[in-house]
Write a structure and sequence with these properties.
Blueprint lengths: L1 E7 L2 H9 L9 E7 L15 H12 L9 E7 L10 H14 L7 E6 L6 E7 L13 H15 L7 H11 L3 H17 L3 H10 L3 E7 L2 E9 L5 E5 H4 L5 H39 L19 H13 L9 H7 L1
Antiparallel strand pairs: 1-3, 2-4, 3-5, 4-5, 6-7, 7-8
Helix pairs in contact: 1-2, 3-4
Length: 335
């Protein structure tokens, strides 16, 4: 048996994953333990996996120590496939409680859930780093102590320790790989720039294998992006988890600004048409026989006045149009 730990700031996000409350991850979830949290019940008395409601209980207690930026403690206890037949919910519950006791995780809120994956039997434990009295749960030398406790429990319950490759595979399953988030953020950001509005944005992402959901969290709208990683696992990231510019409010703001820019461009179009009309009119006037001057073979007097030199300059610059000195002021304005 081996353990992994993740720390975070968002209880709702962690609970949404381990309880699969939105059915995104296609997991068979069983709640096998909880303490200090309010879990809603269905009319049949079964627990309802409402991540947002459960998160409220955790967040209220965490607010006693606002200086703790990451109160979410997410533990994963995992066994190799060789132990899958013996890992019943009752045994998992006993192992989880003993692990927490030996790690001095006590007097705080927690929830324990198992995922029924045959190739990787494991449980998830979410606990609050802020305990019931507003103190911080001790996590000093956590990894060293956890390794020692895992070895003790493995020997006590006759479990397999797991080889290096099995542990590495388990890490890839449980931990959203940084490259998955990075690639997802890049893909979604590029698609946003190509999109005209929210519906267009969703359709373009769907064509690229990303499903976008508009969700409500704590009475505020949010975006949830569902993507399949290179390892074949499903991941769900909120927009703010990927990039601060991919939150619901920032995406909506992007579309509003883009719409305003296009509106301004449409306002400028008549002015451009007006200039084209004026230029065409000037070309017609300057091309009329009355405005033409004979330029070929024209002999300039040896002594030219300043006005004559300017007139000749503008005549040479005008090309086929033969713009005269009297016309140059309008040409300057057009240019």
């Amino acid at each position: 048996m081996y353990a992994f730990i993740h720390q975070g700031a968002n209880f709702a996000g962690a609970l949404d994953y381990i309880l699969d409350s939105r059915g995104v991850y296609d997991k068979s979830v069983q709640l096998i333990g909880a303490e200090g949290v309010d879990i809603p019940l269905s009319p049949d008395g079964e627990p309802e996996f409402d991540a947002d409601s459960i998160a409220v209980s955790f967040q209220i207690q965490a607010s006693m120590r606002p200086q703790i930026s990451k109160p979410v403690q997410h533990l994963i206890l995992s066994c190799p496939p060789a132990d899958k037949e013996k890992m019943t919910p009752g045994l998992w519950r006993s192992i989880a409680q003993e692990y927490m006791q030996k790690m001095h995780i006590k007097d705080t809120q927690f929830i324990i859930a198992s995922h029924g994956e045959k190739d990787n039997p494991h449980i998830h434990i979410i606990y609050n780093k802020v305990d019931n009295d507003g103190h911080t749960v001790n996590d000093g030398n956590f990894y060293y102590r956890s390794f020692k406790v895992c070895r003790e429990l493995t020997l006590k319950y006759g479990l397999a320790w797991g080889k290096g490759k099995e542990i590495s595979n388990a890490q890839n399953i449980h931990r959203p790989i940084d490259s998955v988030k990075k690639n997802a953020a890049k893909l979604i950001t590029e698609t946003l720039k190509e999109s005209a509005n929210m519906e267009d944005f969703k359709l373009r992402l769907l064509g690229k294998g990303v499903m976008t959901l508009e969700v409500m969290r704590s009475d505020r709208p949010g975006l949830l992006f569902n993507i399949i990683g290179d390892n074949g696992r499903k991941y769900a990231f909120s927009g703010s988890q990927l990039n601060k510019n991919l939150s619901y409010s920032k995406v909506q703001s992007f579309f509003r600004k883009d719409c305003q820019t296009k509106s301004q461009q449409k306002v400028e179009t008549p002015r451009a048409a007006e200039y084209v009309h004026k230029i065409s009119k000037v070309i017609n006037i300057l091309s009329s026989p009355s405005q033409k001057q004979e330029s070929s073979g024209q002999q300039h007097p040896s002594k030219e006045t300043k006005e004559q030199r300017e007139a000749r300059y503008w005549e040479e610059q005008s090309g086929a149009l033969n713009v005269t000195f009297e016309d140059r002021r309008f040409v300057e304005i057009i240019h």
